Amino acid sequence: MGAWGELGAAAGGSLLLCAALLGAGCALGLSLGRGRGAADRGALAWLCYDALVHFALEGPFVYLSFTGNIAESDGLIASLWKEYGKADARWLNFDPTIVSLEILTVVLDGFLALVLIYAIVKEKYYRHFIQITLCVCELYGGWMTFFPDWLMGSPNLNTSSWLYFWVYLVFFNSVWVLIPGLLLWQSWVELKKMYHKGNSLGKKSQ
Residue 123 class from Cβ within 10 Å (0-12 exposed, 13-18 middle, 19+ buried)? Predict the structure, then answer.
């Protein structure tokens, strides 16, 4: 069958759902960012997708974890997490570390993403404070998701399949490292510009 034979109905459906959320997030973000620079439009597209993932995918995961577990649940969202659970078994049953992180992600990161969207659209002074806070939270979540398991020799991770390793574990998780890292860099550059601009105005007024 070859490598592509691994893309069965469950995997295909899960990837299509993720693609649909990505398309919806990008469309909404680009609409909100109409007339703004490319960097802000890109940030808004990402943030809308980020918020959708937190609320539409991770929110139900938390709910299903408290009412039972993913492995014994039915429905579209449960099937997506069951598919991801083939790569990381901690998502199938109640893992305290994972569920704790997901509660933080849904409640805090989801809320911060919405606040940041508003701050960018309305050009609020607190935009980069929220942006830095959200990015640090996202990076912390990624670290705490994998590092404890790595310390134990990764007993829950299935890296035997290209799909599970490169798509589910590497690609989907590295996106939440790369983009927050880029947004942190953007905030650094913008705050540096503000600092130098403030210094210049201060010297002129003396």
Answer: exposed
Largest CA distance in the chain: 75
Alpha carbons 131 and 120: distance in angstroms, whole number = 10
Q: How far apart are CA 48 and CA 12, in angstroms?
A: 23
Using a 10 angstrom Cβ sphere, with 0-12 exposed, 13-18 middle and 19 or more buried, the burial of residue 81 is buried
Count of alpha carbons within 13 angstroms of residue 196, beta-carbon side: 5
Retrieve residue 81's tokens: 């997490």
Distance, CA of 126 to chain centre: 21
Give the count of alpha carbons within 13 A of 50, CB side only. 30
Cβ atoms of 69 and 94 within 8 Å: the answer is yes
- To the question of pTM greater than 0.85 for the whole model, the response is yes
- Say yes or no to pLDDT of 3 above 60: no
